[in-house]
Every structure is written in structure tokens, then in C-alpha cells.
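New to this. Explain the following:
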Amino acid sequence: LMLSSCNLTKLPSVLRYLNEITELDLSSNQINGVIPSWVWENWNGHLSYLNLSHNMFTGLEKSPSLVPMGSIYVLDLSYNRLEGDVLIPTIRSGRTDIILDYSNNYFNSILPSVGRYLGKTSYLDLSSNKIRGHIPTSICNASELQILDLSYNYFSGVIPSCLAQRKLGVLKLRGNQIH
């Protein structure tokens, strides 16, 4: 279901009842408020592509850090106003090319054990947020990671040595306070 650029200001209520939807694009609308929990509760196991980018979402209902999204391979939440902990999908899919884009939001923290849940992620973009603290060393557990963009946050401390030893295709760290 592709509803990109439709001038929507809220999630269509009918979506709640589409239990077996596999792809949904609601990007470039004007949807604000929180992303309701039924998105991951109703669509877990079916939804493989979800693009909510370029809207005005501010948070996640019930503020979970981990959400069951067993079949997701693309989750794009970029260019919103999302705050709090970075949302981490728990994925059961056999895919190893998962794309997670959370850039250009207001996320301010990330689970220290984030890498434990990113084993099959190849692309992770957390750029242009407000994430503070050290880069979690658990990020090195994401064995399929090829592109990691942590630029323009407030990360401090040292770069985990495991990142320097990995064969990442792209590692972006500019605009932080690391050394």
C-alpha cells in the first residue's frame, strides 16, 4: 500500500485492520503524534517494508525500545520529530540485508545492548539526532553491518576498537565529540 505524498495528517484508521499488510509507505505526508503500538502488534510477522519518513511523528506509543517486527527488512523513520530511545526491531527474518534509517530526528539515547538485535542489519543510519554517551561496543555484534552512520550526534569518548577492526564499507562519525 503506497500512500506517499497524499497530504495525510493522521494515520488512516482502516490501516489498523489490515492485519496481513506486507509493505506500507506513508512517507512525505504531514502525519503527527505518536506511532501507535498496533503498528508492530498487528503487523508483526507480516510487515516487511515500512516507510514513515518525512512526517511529524513525535514518539512511539508506550515508548518501547524493542518492538517485535519479525519480517521487517526496511524500516525508515527518518525526518520526523521522534524523541527518546532509538527504536530497535526484534527481527526473526532470515534476511541479512536489513535497512534501518532513523536519521534526522531527536532520539537521545540508544540501548547499550543494541548490537545484540542488529545481527542481520546491513545499513544503520542514526545521523543527525541528539544521542549522547559512548558508542555502544555491542554495535560490533552486528556482523552483517556494512554502512554505519553515527554522524552529527553527541557521542563522546573513544571509538570502540572493534569498529576499527571491522571491514565496514562506510563508517561516518563526523560531528561528534569522540577521540
